[in-house]
Amino acid sequence: MVEEVSTFLNCWPGQIILDCTLGEGGHARHLISRISPGGYLIGIDRDGAAIRIARHNLIGHEKLVEIEQANFADLTEVLERLEIKSLDGVLFDLGVCSSQLGVAERGFSFQLDGPLDMRMDNREKRTAADLVNRLSRKELEWIIREYGEERFAGRISRRIVEERSSRPIMRTGRLARIITAAVPGRGRIHPATRTFQALRIYLNEELEALKTALPQALSFLKPGGRICVIAFHSLEDRIVKHEFRRQAREIGHLQLLTKKPVRASIAEVHLNRRARSARLRAAEKQ
Ligand SMILES: C[S@@+](CC[C@H](N)C(=O)[O-])C[C@H]1O[C@@H](n2cnc3c(N)ncnc32)[C@H](O)[C@@H]1O
Q: 199 and 227 share a domain?
C-alpha cells in the first residue's frame, strides 16, 4: 500500500519520518524519495536479517537514513539516543516481511518445512518449539483461541499434546500436519493458518508491543504530523482503532483521516495475496 501510505503521510522535502517496521526497506525507499533533499528517515526493525536486506536496498541514501535494530516498543529510547525531539510522520506496517515468511529456516511458514522457530529477533531465547512442547494443553488452547481466533483451538491443543508425548514437535511441517489432522473438513484458508498466527503473535508479544508503541509514537508527532498504521488482522486493527479514538475523543489532539480502514486495491491484491488482509488507518496530530 505504498501509494496509500504516501498519500496519507503527505511527506515533503526536509521532513523527519520514523518507519517503525523497516522490513526490507520498501516503504522507506519510497518515503526517502519524498523527503529528500534535506529530510531524515529513522528505520526500526527487530529483525537483524531484514535490516541487512534494508541496508542493501537503501545503498546510496546513507546520509538520509538511520537504521536501528530495536523493538518499536522502545522507540522513545531510540529517538532520545538519536536526539530526535519531534517527527513529521510515523509508519507502522505490521506483521511479517517476505524474508521471514519465505525462508524455511525462520519457521514462520506452515507451507515450508523448517525448524519451529518464529522469532522475529533471533537474539531472543524462546522459540515456537518451546511453546508447543512445554506449555500446558490449557495454555495452548487459550493462545490459539485468543491470538488465532481459532474455533477448533480445543481439538488442536489436545492433538498437539498427544503427539508431543511420543516425541517433541520440532518442525513446522509436522505441526502443520498435526493441526490439519485435528481440524474437521477444509475451509477457505489452510487449517494451520490461525494456529501459526497465534503462536507467532504470542511468542513475539506483538500486540503488547503495538499497545506500548502507539502512544509513544503519537507523543513525538508535531502538530500537523501524520501517522499511518497497516494492520494484517482484526486483533491489531482493533488496538489501532481504539488508541486513535481514545486520543481523538478523550485527549482531543488527533484527527482521524480514515473513518474505516482503507483496504488494498484489487490490482495490489492480485500482485501480492498478503495485501488482501491489509487495513490502513491514518490520523493527523492537532
Ligand atoms: C510487513 S513487514 C514491513 C515491510 C516494510 N514496510 C517494507 O516495505 O519492506 C513488518 C516488519 O515489522 C517488523 N516488526 C514487527 N514487530 C516489530 C516490533 N515490535 N518492533 C520492530 N519491528 C517489528 C518485522 O520484523 C518485519 O520486518
A: no
The answer to whether residues 223 and 253 belong to one domain is: yes
3-state SS class at 274: helix
Question: For the range 31-35, what are the long-range contacts, defined as Cβ-Cβ under 8 Å and sequence gap of 24 or more?
Answer: 31/5, 31/6, 31/89, 31/91, 32/58, 32/61, 32/64, 32/65, 34/6, 34/9, 35/11, 35/64
Domain assignment present for 117: no
Could you tell me which residues are beta bridge partners of residue 256? Answer: 283
Residues 179 and 211 in one domain: no
pLDDT tens profile 29-57: 999 999 999 999 999 999 999 999 999 99
pLDDT tens, residue by residue, 154-173: 999 999 999 999 999 999 99
Among the candidates 155, 182, 203, a domain finishes at 203
In a shared domain, residues 155 and 219: no
Q: Is the per-residue pLDDT at 186 higher than 80?
A: no
Distance of CA 208 from the midpoint of ligand 1 (Å): 15
pTM: 0.96
Q: Which of 44, 41, 168, 51 is nearest to 100 (CA)?
A: 51
In a shared domain, residues 151 and 198: yes
Task: Give residues (CB < 6 A) around ligand 1.
Answer: 21, 23-27, 44-47, 50, 71-73, 93, 95-97, 120, 206, 209
Number of domains in the chain: 2
